[in-house]
């Protein structure tokens, strides 16, 4: 569990609004989720959500079935403390996305901003995709963002895989119909610009 100890240390020693991936609001992700959620009871999981504010905005939108999954309990604690009493409305899940137990056909919208690009081993990527296929309902939406071709070669001291849009979609295979690609230039708290590619698919 080297990855767990790494991320627990990050969130135990740094303020969540100073890390490079911090966003005051996950604006692009929110736009896509709002566009595909069938109603307020759509079952949403934010994979690697950690201390992200996406959960805050989903709750503010009135979503009632929100899960946040992260390998770092320290990251989840940051979000729980920030939300206060509202945290009770969220299903918090601590675990490695490649191995954590997920209920079959239990998710309508899968969101991941910046976990997938840390999976530098092909076997881990295959395990991740198998988890998506197991957990998603047929017709469910999968929104995954990773560093694009102009993105950094590492993040938080760890190596990453950069993806062209078609290459990111190809990792998921023919069971996932591509709906759209999007690109985002993320401005870090330190003033740097990181290039992200988003892939939005529907699982059949």
Radius of gyration computed on alpha carbons? 16 Å
Find the CATH superfamily: Vaccinia Virus protein VP39
**Overall pLDDT level:** 93
Please state roughly what percent of the residues sit in beta strands, choosing from under 5%, 5-15%, 15-25%, 25-35%, 35-45% or over 45%.
Answer: 25-35%
Regions with little confidence, pLDDT below 50 for 5+ residues? none
The SSE string, one letter per element, is HHEHEHEEHEEEHEE
CATH topology: Rossmann fold
User: Could you name the CATH class?
Assistant: Alpha Beta
Number of strands: 9
The major beta sheet can be summarized as: 7 strands, mixed
The DSSP helix count reads: 6
Helical fraction = 25-40%
> How many discrete domains?
1
Molecular shape: globular
- Helix-and-strand structural type: alpha/beta
> Biggest sheet: strands side by side, in what order?
3-2-1-4-5-9-8
| Straight-line N-to-C gap | 33 Å
Walk me through the structure.
- The mean pLDDT is 93.
- This protein is α/β, with parallel strands linked by helices and 204 residues long.
- The chain has a single domain (2-203), classed as Rossmann fold (3-Layer(aba) Sandwich), CATH 3.40.50.150.
- It is 29% helix and 30% strand.
- The strands form 2 sheets. A 7-stranded mixed sheet has the order 3-2-1-4-5-9-8. Strands 6-7 form a two-stranded antiparallel ribbon.
- It has helices spanning 2-13, 27-36, 54-60, 73-83, 122-135, 165-170, and strands at residues 43-47, 65-70, 90-94, 107-113, 136-147, 154-155, 158-159, 176-187, 193-203.
- It is built from 6 helices and 9 strands, in the order ααβαβαββαβββαββ.
- Helix 1 (2-13) runs parallel beside helix 4.
């Amino acid at each position: 569990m080297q990855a767990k100890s790494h991320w627990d240390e990050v969130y135990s020693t740094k303020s969540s609004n100073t890390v490079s991936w911090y966003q005051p609001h996950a604006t692009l992700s929110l736009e896509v989720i709002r566009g595909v959620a069938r109603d307020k009871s759509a079952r949403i999981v934010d994979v690697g959500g950690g201390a992200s504010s996406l959960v805050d905005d989903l709750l503010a939108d009135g979503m009632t079935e929100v899960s946040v999954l992260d390998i770092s309990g320290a990251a989840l604690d940051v979000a729980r403390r920030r939300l206060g009493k509202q945290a009770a409305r969220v299903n918090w899940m601590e675990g490695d996305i490649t191995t954590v137990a997920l209920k079959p056909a239990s998710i309508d919208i899968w969101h991941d901003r910046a976990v997938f690009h840390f999976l530098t081993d092909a076997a881990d990527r295959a395990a991740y995709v198998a988890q998506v296929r197991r957990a998603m309902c047929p017709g469910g939406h999968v929104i995954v963002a990773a560093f694009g071709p102009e993105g950094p070669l590492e993040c938080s001291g760890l190596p990453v895989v950069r993806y062209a849009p078609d290459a990111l979609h190809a990792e998921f295979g023919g069971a996932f119909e591509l709906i759209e690609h999007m690109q985002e230039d993320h401005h870090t708290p330190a003033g740097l610009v990181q290039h992200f590619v988003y892939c939005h698919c529907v699982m059949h």
